[in-house]
Write a structure and sequence with these properties.
single chain; 210 residues; alpha/beta; eight-stranded parallel β-barrel; 8 helices; 47% helix
């Protein structure tokens, strides 16, 4: 049985170099990474796939096919659930059933359930920018989904140790670590490895599988 939570990455527009990414992949098991369809995407996809990680392109199913990626991540749209659901359906039509198609949920439970019913391979829940009530509502949403549904949930956008702790405690199936944009490659890679190690330590300390 696969241990949860697993670790995934969000790579920025200014993508990391191949060496920095490979160093992270060598240090810890990464399930997947999402990225924009930028100039270096093909190189990064190859590195990820060589390490056994799925490579997902953001919001561009046709580019995902052309680049040989494993699938697509549909981000939350400006119009929230209806827009995201329509773009997810369009992406699935392009990709077919053999590639991954996951999506970020809107703010409501109904929006998440619609994506699950539409066949999303995972449903993502983005960490709020502010703490307090918004964070409490997010934890409750992740815990509800993880307890009730078989479709995996991803805690999107974890940037700090506090975020990782909240995501793991909430029961996320996947914890997504954000690759820092305004750091040197050495510092960014070190930061991601430290957060990944925290996920592993919390997972192992909790006894592995949920």
């Amino acid at each position: 049985m696969t241990e949860h939570p697993q670790i995934c990455l969000q790579l920025p527009q200014e993508a990391p170099g191949v060496t920095a990414l490979r160093d992270v992949l060598d240090a810890v098991a990464i399930a997947s990474a999402r990225m924009p369809a930028g100039a270096t995407a093909a190189q990064l996809i190859a590195v990820l796939q060589d390490a056994g990680a799925a490579a997902l392109i953001e919001d561009d199913a046709r580019a995902a096919l052309e680049l040989g990626a494993d699938g697509v991540h549909v981000a939350r749209g400006d119009l929230d659930a209806p827009d995201t659901l329509a773009r997810f359906a369009a992406a699935r039509d392009v990709l077919g059933a053999d590639r991954i198609a996951g999506a970020e949920s809107g703010a409501t439970r109904h929006a998440a359930m619609e994506l699950g019913e539409a066949g999303a391979d995972y449903v993502g829940f983005a960490l709020p920018n502010e703490a307090g009530d918004a964070m409490d509502a997010w934890r409750a949403q992740v815990r509800w989904w993880a307890d009730v549904f078989e479709v995996p949930c991803v805690a999107l956008g974890c940037r700090s140790e506090d975020h990782v702790c909240a995501a793991v405690a909430a029961g996320a199936d996947f914890v997504e670590l954000v690759w820092p944009e305004r750091s040197s490659e050495t510092e960014a890679g070190r930061h991601v490895r430290q957060l990944a190690q925290l996920v592993v330590e919390m997972r192992d300390g909790a006894g592995g599988d949920r």
